[in-house]
Amino acid sequence: MVDKSFYKVKENVTLADVAKVTSAVLSDESKGNEKIADIATMASAGVEDICFFYDRKSKEKAAEIKAKACVTTADLVQFLPQSVIALTCENPKLAFVALNEYMYAEHKPQAGIDATAQIAKSAEIGQNCHIGAYAVIGENVTIGDGCVIEPHTVIEHHCKIGNNCRIGSSAYIAYAHIGNNCYIYSGARIGCDGFGFQLINGQHHRIPQLGRVIIGNDVEIGANTCIDRGALDDTVIGDGSRIDNLVQIAHNDKLGRGCVIVSQVGIAGSCTLGDYVVLGGQVGLADHLNIGSMAQIAAQSGVMRDVEAGAVMMGSPCVPFKDFMRQVAFLQKNSKK
Amino acid sequence: MVDKSFYKVKENVTLADVAKVTSAVLSDESKGNEKIADIATMASAGVEDICFFYDRKSKEKAAEIKAKACVTTADLVQFLPQSVIALTCENPKLAFVALNEYMYAEHKPQAGIDATAQIAKSAEIGQNCHIGAYAVIGENVTIGDGCVIEPHTVIEHHCKIGNNCRIGSSAYIAYAHIGNNCYIYSGARIGCDGFGFQLINGQHHRIPQLGRVIIGNDVEIGANTCIDRGALDDTVIGDGSRIDNLVQIAHNDKLGRGCVIVSQVGIAGSCTLGDYVVLGGQVGLADHLNIGSMAQIAAQSGVMRDVEAGAVMMGSPCVPFKDFMRQVAFLQKNSKK
Amino acid sequence: MVDKSFYKVKENVTLADVAKVTSAVLSDESKGNEKIADIATMASAGVEDICFFYDRKSKEKAAEIKAKACVTTADLVQFLPQSVIALTCENPKLAFVALNEYMYAEHKPQAGIDATAQIAKSAEIGQNCHIGAYAVIGENVTIGDGCVIEPHTVIEHHCKIGNNCRIGSSAYIAYAHIGNNCYIYSGARIGCDGFGFQLINGQHHRIPQLGRVIIGNDVEIGANTCIDRGALDDTVIGDGSRIDNLVQIAHNDKLGRGCVIVSQVGIAGSCTLGDYVVLGGQVGLADHLNIGSMAQIAAQSGVMRDVEAGAVMMGSPCVPFKDFMRQVAFLQKNSKK
Known about the structure:
The structure is a homotrimer.
Chain A: E1 7-9, E2 13-14, H1 15-22, E3 25-26, E4 35-36, E5 50-52, H2 59-62, E6 69-72, E7 85-88, H3 92-103, E8 104-106, E9 112-113, E10 118-119, E11 124-125, E12 130-131, E13 136-137, E14 142-143, E15 148-149, E16 154-155, E17 160-161, E18 166-167, E19 172-173, E20 176-178, E21 183-184, E22 189-190, E23 197-200, E24 203-206, E25 213-215, E26 220-221, E27 226-227, E28 235-237, E29 242-243, E30 248-249, E31 254-255, E32 260-261, E33 266-267, E34 272-273, E35 278-279, E36 284-285, E37 290-291, E38 296-297, E39 302-303, E40 312-315, E41 318-320, H4 321-334
Parallel strand pairs in A: 5-6, 6-7, 9-12, 10-13, 11-14, 12-15, 13-16, 14-17, 15-18, 16-19, 17-20, 18-21, 19-22, 20-25, 21-26, 22-27, 25-28, 26-29, 27-30, 28-31, 29-32, 30-33, 31-34, 32-35, 33-36, 34-37, 35-38, 36-39, 38-40
Antiparallel strand pairs in A: 1-8, 2-4, 3-7, 23-24, 40-41
C-alpha cells in the first residue's frame, strides 16, 4: 500500500479509468464502475487491488491471484481465475508503467529559486525551474526549462543542462554537457579528473585531464556514481542509458544508447560500449576494450578482452555463459573425487 | 596514544577505576591506585598502558605483554607474565568497550539549531537536538530527542527520525522512517528511486518507485552507502544491523536483525536476509534471494541461489566453504601438471 | 580538441616554445616558428597537432602519424615518417605532462573567502586560499597557504591541512592531518568511524574509534572514496599515493609511498602496504595483511594471505599471475571434454 504521506495518490480509480489509461479492453464492461484500491504484485494483491500478468512462466502463480482485477494479454487471460476481472492489452508492461504514473506521483517542488541559492550572474536558468536551497551554480552555466536542481548541488562554470532534468542533492557537475530529461541522483560526481598520471623517477605526475563529460537525453545516473571527464577526448554516455548507484566510469569511456549499467560496476578508461549493452552488478572492465551492442555481461564478471555484439559472458576472466556453466560443473564434480 | 586535540580523554584513571567500570576483579588490590595512561593493543601497549586479552589463540602473544595491566578471564590469566597486573572478568570484550567509553569521547556538538539551517515550519524537532549549518529539513519531517543532524544534510518531506540519532554531513534522507539510536554516516543516500524500468520498443521506461525505506533501532549505515526505497513494497533494515561504507542495497530488500554487511557489498532487489546474516566485503547477491539467519557469505562471493540458515559459503557462484577450499586445492594441484 | 569554454588554452604555441618547455631538441631548427594547434594522441593527431611517442611497441603506429610534430627519444625517432617534425628528449612522458601544463589549464578560483562560508573563529586559514560557498570549517582547524576549499565541504574541528591542497565539493574531513599538495576529490569521506563492534549477547556494541587519518604529501584521494580513521592506532596514507574513486580504506590501514589504488578497491582493517603497491580495480584485501613493496595485484583479485614484495598476483583467492593463467587454461581445456 502506497504511503499517502509521501506520495500523491489518485482516489476512486475505476476499472473504466484503468482501461482508458492502459488502452486495455475490460472483459466485463458491467464492471467499469468498480474501484481499485492499489496496484500490487500478483502474489501480494488483495481483493481490492489490481495486478499485472505478462510472463507465461508465471502461469501457475496467475492461478492463485486474489486481486479484483488483472491486466494481461489476450494470450494469457486463460490462466486467470474466474474471480478475477480481466483487462487485456497488447503490452501489459507498458500498461503497468502507465497506470503507476496515473495513480501515483511524487510531490514535485514548486518552480522558483531558493533565496539561498548562489547563482552566477552569467548563468542562464530556463523557465519553470526549481533551484533548491544552497545550490551553487557557476559562471556561464545554462540550464533549460523545467529543471529541478535539488539542495546543495554544485554545477561548475560553463556546464550545459537541457530541459526537464533533475539533479539530486549534493551532486557535483563539472566540465559537462547534459541533454534533456536526465536524472542525476544525489551525490553523483560528474566530471572529476580522470585517474591519469605518469610514474617518472619514482613520482606519480598528474596528467592534466582536459576533456568533458557528454551525457545524452533520457539518461539516469545513480546515487554516488562517479563519471570522470576525458583526458584529451570526452567521456560519453549515450541516449537512454541507465546507470545505477556507486558505478565508476573512467575517463574517455564511451557508452552507446540504452546501456544498462548495474550497481558497483567499474569501467576502466577508454572503453567503448555499443548500444543496449548490459553490465550486471559489480562487473569490472579493463581499459581500452570494445564491447559490442546487445552484449550482456553477468554480475561480478571481469572482462579483459573485447566482447562481440550479442555475446552473453560470465566469469572472471569472462567466457561465454555456457562455457562458464561447464567450468563450474566440472570443478564441482572433479574437486570432490 | 589517543590524540587529545581530537578526543576528550579522562586523566588519572586508576586500576580501581578500571575494575569498577569493567566489573572486573583486580588480582592485587594494593595496586588500585596505580594509574594507566592509555588503552592499547596487546602488542603495542607500553609499561603505563592497559590492554585486553580474550582469545586463547593469542596466548603466546600474551606472554610478551609489556603493559602495566591487562583485563582477561579467570581462565586465561595464567598466560600473562608476572609483571602484568591482572584484572579478571567474565567478558573482557564488553570490558574493553566499557573502558573505552569511560576514558575517551568524541566532542559532541551542543544542542541548538544553526541559524543557517533551513527547516520547514511544519517540521517537528525534538528536545536537545543539534541541527548543523545549512541542513535542509522538509515539510512534516519529525525528528526525535537528542539527535545530531550534521551540516548540509537533507531530510525530505514526511520522513520520521527517532531519538538519539546522528545523521552525518551531506547525507540525503527521503521516503524513510528511521528508528532510535541510529547513525547514518556522511554521504549516505537513503530513499532514492530503485533501479526499475521496462524496456519497451527500445526505450527504458522508468517504473515509478513508490515504497519507502524503513530502518529499525540501533542501526548504523556507512558513509556513501545507498539504500534505495521500495517499488510498491518497502525496503527494510532490521534492528541492530551494521552496514559499512559504499554498500548498495536495492529496492525491496529486507534485512533481519543484527545483520553485518561489510563494505562494497551489493544486494540486488527483493532479497530477504534473516537475522545475523554476515556478508563479507564486496559480496554480490542476485535479486529475489532468501538468505537464512546466521548465514555467512565470505568476501567477494557471488550468490545466485538461496542460502540456508547457518550456511558458510564462498566463491562466485558461491558453494559451501569446504567445497570452495577443495576446488581451490584441486585447481592449484592439477593446473601445474 | 580541448573545449575553450572549460579550459584556458595558450594560443600560438610554436615548436620553439615546445622545445623550450619540454627540454627537447628540435630536429629542424628552421621550423621553430611553426605553430601547433593541439596536443593529441598518435592516432588522432591531425596535421596541425603535436603528439608524443615513447613506447617502442607502438613503432608501427608511429609510422602512421599524421601530426605536424612529435616528441620522442633519440632512439625512437627513426620510426617517425619523414613528414613529421621530430623533437627529441630524454623523457617524452615528462615532456607530455610539461606541455599539457603549459598549454592548458583549469580555471582556478580566485583567492578569497565566500561570505557564506562558516569558519570557526579559532580556525587558521593561510595566505591566498579560496574558501567556497557554504564551506563549514570547525574549531581549531588549520589550513595552509594556497588551498582551495570547494563549496559545501565540511572540515571538522582540529584537522590540519597543509599548503596548496584542494578539497573537492561536499567532501567531509574529520580527525585528519593532511600534508601539502594533496587533492581530496568531491564527496570523499575522510575520518569516519571504523566499522568496529563486538557481538555481545546478541547485540553489536560499537567500539569507540579513537584514531586519526594521517595523509602525507602529494596524495590524491578520489571522488566518494572513504577512508576510516583508526581505532586506537591511525590510518596512514603515504606520500605520493594515488587513490581512485569509490575506494574503501578501513581503520588502521597503512599505505606506503607512491601506492596506486584503482577504483572500487576495498582494503579491510589493519592492512599494511609497502611502497609503490598497485591494487587493480575492485581488488579486495582481507584484514591484517602485509603487502610487500612493488607488489601488483590484478583487478578483481581477492587477497587472503600476505603478499611478498614485487609479487604479481591474480585471482580470488589470488595466486602468482602465471599460476592464475595456468588455472584458467586448465579449466577452459578440461571442462570442454
